[in-house]
Each structure stands twice: as structure tokens, then as C-alpha cells.
Specification:
- The structure is a single chain.
- The strands form two sheets. Strands 1, 2, 3, 6, 7 and 8 form a six-stranded mixed beta sheet that branches. Strands 4-5 form a two-stranded antiparallel sheet.
- Helix 1 packs parallel to helix 2.
- It is globular and about 45 Å long.
- By secondary structure, the protein is α/β, with parallel strands linked by helices.
Length: about 150
């Protein structure tokens, strides 16, 4: 499982001209699911993301987590995070998990986050989405449950 986590002042996702998810201060999470991912990857990613200490404390140091600052999450499925661009000019997506299996792991990630984070919004799995992000910092992190980076 891979994620691009961006600290945001606000973020929203639009499908068919309608806002379906919107947050204020928190994280915009683009979440990719691979063919090898399991429930353990989901738990690892949830714990890692909601506990990342990338919000400033009173001294301006990055010591506070999303939970500490009562931040919000916008989680968007993003199979292209498993795009392989090493050969040619068209990415290959053979490592990405698709369909109902990917949606189940995505929904489980969202469910686990909702147990601990006060506001969790989502995109629409498999839809063509327009995502607006006001990146704060900017702070952008890449996380991989297999710890490849």
C-alpha cells in the first residue's frame, strides 16, 4: 500500500461537478493499493499516517500529529501510485489491485481512520475526480507499507 500524504489548509474532491468530500486543516491522502496488500498493510498505513508528527508545536517544531491537532482527513483512491514508468513512456499498472478487492481494502482503511479521526471524507472509488489541494508548508510525504521508500 502506498500513500502520498499532503498537509493541507483545505482540500476537496469533486465528481460530476459536485463536491463529495471536503476538509479543512489536516491531510489529503492519495492511497494506492497493490496486489500484495493485506489487512496488515491497512493497519500499518492508518497508524503511520494519523500519528505522523508534521504539525508545528508552540516552538514551531514538527512535533504534533493529526490526532494532536484534531486534524481532518480526505482519502482518495489512487491506483496510479503503482504505475511503473521504468520502461517506455506508458506506465504499466500490473502491480495495482483493482475492482472489489481494492475497494474493500480502501473502505477498511477509511473505516479504521474514522475510529480515531473526528472527520474523514473520501473521494469516490473508481470515479473521475477533480481534487483541489491547498498544500500547507508544503509538506508532502511518501509512505509505503512494504517500506520500499
Amino acid at each position: 500500500m502506498r500513500a502520498v500524504v499532503q498537509r493541507v489548509k483545505c482540500s476537496k474532491v469533486v465528481v460530476d461537478g459536485k463536491v463529495i468530500g471536503q476538509i479543512d486543516r489536516g491531510f489529503n491522502v492519495l492511497l494506492g493499493i497493490s496486489r500484495e496488500d493485506t489487512a496488515e498493510d491497512v493497519k500499518y498505513m492508518k497508524d503511520k499516517i494519523i500519528n505522523l508528527r508534521v504539525f508545528e508545536d508552540d516552538q514551531g517544531k514538527l512535533n504534533r500529529s493529526l490526532l494532536d491537532v484534531k486534524g481532518e482527513l480526505l482519502v482518495i483512491s489512487q491506483f496510479t501510485l503503482y504505475g511503473d514508468c521504468r520502461k517506455g513512456r506508458r506506465p504499466g499498472f500490473t502491480e495495482a489491485l483493482g475492482g472489489d478487492e481494492a475497494n474493500s481494502l480502501y473502505e477498511e482503511f477509511v473505516r479504521l481512520c474514522r475510529e480515531e479521526v473526528s472527520r474523514v471524507e473520501t473521494g469516490e472509488f473508481g470515479a473521475d475526480m477533480m481534487v483541489s489541494i491547498e498544500n500547507d508548508g508544503p509538506v508532502t510525504l511518501l509512505i509505503d507499507s512494504k517500506k520500499n521508500f
